[in-house]
Automatic annotation (TrEMBL):
Record: residues binding L-ornithine: N168, D232, S236, M237
Gene3D superfamilies reported in the protein's UniProt record: Aspartate/ornithine carbamoyltransferase
Protein name: Ornithine carbamoyltransferase
Keywords for the protein's UniProt record, in alphabetical order: Cytoplasm, Transferase
Pfam families, per the entry: OTCace, OTCace_N
Domain of life: Archaea
Chief localization: cytoplasm
Binding positions for carbamoyl phosphate per the UniProt entry: S57, T58, R59, T60, Q84, R108, H135, P136, A137, Q138, C272, L273, R300
Family label: Belongs to the aspartate/ornithine carbamoyltransferase superfamily. OTCase family.
EC number: 2.1.3.3
Length: 313
């Protein structure tokens, strides 16, 4: 793998299988060094990360901020509502100006085109910290967790996502698994399929590597013999108006003890968090023997370090 410095991180589809594996290996090394007590690894001394948020965040904000600081750099939290963006300054102009002050930008936005535009007009790398369509930083971290829990070859695993097939976290997870040559089963109702733009990316970047996905309407059939059962909220940020309909449509896809008992006995349960307990997953599962959700959250920081260290010029 040649240097990744200066590259954007918008959907994962910008990266080859080898590059993704390189990022994951780098994250693993950062984690080992962190657990061995090595707090500061001064690779980004004097560098600044700007973090723009249009939506709330706990994990993404804090893992990126601590990661940047532990790499010797600094991070600035910017609420979109407090930038001149809120008064009509364009994304293009914001990108042009910000990228003359900082070395790397991370942004969490509603419409995905906004992060693309930011990247197009920025002189420095732009990292997607979640858009309505993608959450690539989450997916990189999740692959790391799956490899830690289930071994390095994810192509041998049965990975099942249960719930909203049009979810941003699923979109990035399916691209990550697919680019690495693996397969994902999506258990979702009619009308909740992956977004056409994600299917297109999948066909172009994952299928040639042997990656595949399959939609199965019956959640019990889908999770049969599963190694990994993943879910996310039914009502994502920005979908509050559709709340009632979504909950009604997705009700049969709740991850319950009974559902987990159809997976392999040593299956793991994953969730990007925050969870709406009692909705997409019951307490007995998220707090039960299957759950790896806290390790998942922990891994975000190590994965962010890899992204920041490898991409920041
Ligand atoms: N999983 C995740 O991105 O969480 P936050 O919304 O708290 O950042
Ligand atoms: N799908 C969720 C993920 C939150 C991390 C949302 O977009 O709200």
């Amino acid at each position: 793998v040649t240097s990744l410095k200066g590259r954007h991180f918008l959907t994962l589809a910008e990266y080859s299988r080898e590059e993704l594996l390189f990022m994951i290996r780098t994250a693993m090394q950062f984690k080992q060094r962190y657990l061995a007590g090595e707090r500061i690894i001064p690779l980004l001394v004097g560098r600044h990360l700007a973090m723009i948020f249009e939506k709330p965040s706990t994990r993404t904000r804090i893992s990126f901020e601590t990661a940047m600081k532990e790499l010797g750099g600094d991070a600035i939290y910017l609420s979109a509502s407090e930038l001149q963006l809120a008064r009509g300054e364009t994304i293009e102009d914001t990108a042009r100006v910000l990228s003359r002050y900082v070395d790397v930008i991370m942004a969490r936005v509603y419409e995905h085109y906004k992060i693309e535009k930011l990247a197009q007009y920025s002189r420095v790398p732009v990292i997607n910290g979640l858009s309505d369509l993608h959450h690539p930083a989450q997916a990189l971290s999740d692959v790391l967790t799956i490899m830690e829990k289930k071994g390095g070859d994810i192509t041998r695993l049965k990975i099942v996502f249960v719930g909203d097939g049009g979810d941003n976290v699923l979109h990035s997870l399916m691209l990550a698994i697919g680019i690495l040559g693996g397969k994902i089963i999506i258990a979702s109702p009619k009308g909740y399929e992956p977004h056409p733009s994600v299917v297109k990316l999948f066909n172009e970047h994952a299928s040639p590597n042997g990656g595949s996905y399959e939609i199965e309407r019956d959640p019990f059939k889908a999770v049969e013999n599963a190694d990994v059962v993943y879910t996310d909220v039914w009502v994502s940020m920005g979908q509050e108006k559709e709340k009632e309909k979504r909950i009604k449509d997705l009700e049969p896809y709740r991850v319950t003890v009974e559902l987990m008992n159809h997976a392999k006995p040593d299956a793991i349960f994953m969730h990007c968090l925050p969870a709406h307990r009692g909705e997409e997953v019951v307490n007995e599962v998220i707090d039960g023997k299957w759950s790896v959700v806290w390790d998942q959250a922990e891994n975000r920081k190590h994965a962010q370090k890899a992204i920041l260290a490898l991409l920041t010029p």
